[in-house]
Amino acid sequence: MCGIIGAVSQRDIAKILLEGLRSLEYRGYDSSGLMVVNSTGQASRLRCVGKVNNLACAAEHATLSGETGIAHTRWATHGKPAESNAHPHISTNIAVVHNGIIENHELLRDQLQGRGYTFYSETDTEVVAHLVHWEQQRGGSLLSVVQRVIPDLRGTYGMVILDTDSPDRLIAARSGSPLVIGCGVGENFIVSDPMALLSVTRRFIYLEEGDVAQISCYGIKIIDRCNNIAQRCEVELDTHYDVVNKGVYSHYMQKEIYEQPSVLKNTLSGRHNNSFVELHELNEKAYSLLKKVEHIQIVACGTSYHSGMVARYWLESLAKMPCDTEIASEFRYRKSVVRENSLFVTLSQSGETADTLAALRLSKRLGYLGSLSICNVASSSLVRESDFSLMMKAGIEVGVASTKSFTAQLVILLILVAKISSLKDATSQVEREIVNALQILPSCIEKVLLQDQLIAQLAQDFSNKNHALFLGRGDQYPIAMEGALKLKEISYIHAEAYAAGELKHGPLALIDSDMPVIVVAPQNALLDKLKSNIEEIRARGGLLYIFTDAISSFVGSDNIYIVPLPHIPEVLAPIVYIVPLQLLSYYIALIRGTDLDKPRNLAKSVTVE
Ligand code: F6R
Questions:
Q1: Which residues belong to any copy of the SIS domain (predicted)?
Q2: Residue 584: per-residue pLDDT
Q3: What is the pTM of this model?
């Protein structure tokens, strides 16, 4: 994680760096810092614990000005959130900002201490500053010095190095963490995410793995991992950075939950014609590949993994397509067997999740038929490195807890299931049924949102609990998992999800009147089985919250709360039933007074493993 921005200009860039950091805050927000240097070599560094706003306030009272600078917003990996651990880290004239993890930092620290260097932080990054400083004594340009240091580093980095003695340039290096050069007129920039620079440029050059670049006001020089001068094409982004505001809502998360009907209309738009799927984004090559596919391997993390789990149920039951779904951090280190004609599918809101990207890169060496990513950020590394992509079109998601991106991901997956089903069997009605159902999805979610006040009321008693269980069966099991994830990440209540049939194999021992059990119970073939599980909880005095459209199947009482939901086509249930769980978590967290949009210890984009 961590966001990086750097600039070499002829104008004062302190404000540009601060504004850039605000857009990068989703990458980490436990501390931030910046360093600027003017043409006479006068440098100032400012670092603060907490959100970027703390740094911006401190900057108002400091005299910060300079034409060259680097800045960083941190998500702590090594060393607690503290001013001393905030970047930039310096070694005399050398300053460094870094995203990633230098895995051999302990060894390097020992060596550098042996050479007389004093460390002022607990971070892995500080070794880079001292190493560059040490190597600089051996001579050569800053670019060649950094190139000599790189072979000593193990791990991942996107880093930018500033030498206050030569403030006319910055050196950037990428290995495992994205970096993009922003091209200006008489000025150039470097950043982790181009969105943070859209106010100053739309022209970007994406660095590739192993690249080292020198950026000055008038020139950009890129050296590839084989030490050759690289020509990388400039890309003009036509994305508009919509400054997202909360409008009438109290939090971005609340807004993003409420936005779902319109977001899903957008995700669907142009992707069906009457009862048929139309995926214009996929070219002939993609279609002929899809026709060959005999197995799908889905890989993702967190919320995206949960949508991948739902997709597995859908692909096997509706499209008769064998599918496996795995957590990216497990997949990448496991010796897996690749099935014949298997398509590798990655799911990611950000497209920058380190483990998912690493899994994609690994898949290219393993003999998959090809790779497809489902993503929300068109310029992301995942999209650029996949053979084909389908965009979620969910708009920028600001809340750290994923909501609208989860439902948008599910919509794309369901469209894909429809397409695969018709490619496999032209006589199948599955495509028609799915497309017809999807057309009423936005209005189904609108109806669910009408339960807002009932859910807010239920949250009152729930908010003082310390633990919760979420139960579901079949394609609702991943929804129970996603509901539990939402609750723990924003309310800090410990929550676990179980496939309801597993209850009697252990978790039933936890049931008492203090343990809320949330059950997602749509009308389907498994409802009777689920009702038996609910009875087992009831018989042991458990406190039940049942979300269901099978109202007549349940009777509310003192310890059974029923949240009635609209009747919907069965295939839509996973998409619809997550929405009330998002609302429940939202209202519980609201009562508990947590930082809902930026929960503690988390970041929106997880760019370290
Ligand atoms: C939870 C959440 C995370 C992300 C996970 C993967 O609300 O947002 O679990 O889903 O970090 O992120 P992406 O989808 O960007 O790969």
A1: 286-426, 458-599
A2: 98
A3: 0.88
Residue 426: is its pLDDT beyond 90? no
Distance, CA of 67 to CA of 96 (rounded, Å): 17
Atom of ligand 1 nearest to the CA of 350: 15
Best residue for ligand 1 mutational test, from 355, 397, 402 (most atoms within 8 Å of Cβ):
402
Ligand 1 atom at minimal distance to the Cα of residue 401: 7
Residue 157 burial (10 A CB sphere; 0-12, 13-18, 19+): buried
Ranges of H-type helices in 425-463? 430-449, 452-462
> With a 6 A CB cut-off, is 402 part of the ligand 1 pocket?
yes
Burial of residue 328 (CB within 10 Å: 0-12, 13-18, 19+) is buried
Best probe residue, ligand 1, of 309, 350, 398 (max atoms within 8 Å of C-beta):
350
Q: Could you give the CA distance from residue 431 to residue 454 in angstroms, rounded to a whole number? A: 36
- Tell me the C-alpha distance between 52 and 56, whole Å: 6
**Atom 16 (ligand 1): residue with closest C-alpha?**
348
430-449 and 573-592 are packed helices; what angle lies between their axes, rounded to 10 degrees? 20
**Domain spans, the chain:** 3-236, 252-592
The CATH number, out of the four listed (3.40.50.300, 2.60.130.10, 3.10.580.10, 3.60.20.10), of the domain defined by the range 3-236: 3.60.20.10
Report the phi/psi class of residue 474: left, alpha or beta, with left for phi > 0 and alpha for psi in -120 to 50: left
Over residues 448-461, the mean pLDDT reads 96
Q: What DSSP assignment string belongs to 257-309?
A: HHTHHHHHHHHHTTSEETTEE--TTS-HHHHHHHHH--EEEEEE-HHHHHHHH
Give, using CA atoms, the residue closest to atom 7 of ligand 1: 401
Distance CA 66, CA 545 (A): 58
- Is pLDDT above 80 for 238? no
- Are residues 563 and 451 in contact, defined by beta-carbon separation less than 8 angstroms? yes
CA separation for the pair 241, 202 (Å, rounded): 10
Higher pLDDT, 540 or 303: 303
Tell me, in angstroms, the distance from the centre of ligand 1 to residue 488's CA: 14
Please give the distance, rounded to the nearest whole angstrom, from the Cα atom of residue 561 to the centre of ligand 1. Answer: 30
CA of 583 to the centre of ligand 1 (A): 18
Tell me the β-bridge partners of 69: 7, 36
Could you confirm whether 2 is annotated as catalytic? yes
Radius of gyration of the chain (CA): 26
Q: Is 364 a catalytic residue?
A: no
Mention every residue, 6+ apart, whose C-beta is less than 8 A from residue 100.
Answer: 2, 155, 156, 157, 158, 159, 175, 176, 177, 607, 608
Answer whether 409 contacts ligand 1 (Cβ < 6 A): no
| Residue 561 contacts residue 461 (beta carbons within 8 Å) | no
pLDDT higher than threshold 90 for residue 379:
no
pLDDT tens for each residue of 530-569: 999 999 999 998 999 999 998 888 887 888 999 999 999 9
Contact 1, 606 (CB under 8 A): yes
The fold adopted by the segment(s) 252-592 is: Rossmann fold (3.40.50)
- Residue with CA closest to ligand 1 atom 4: 302
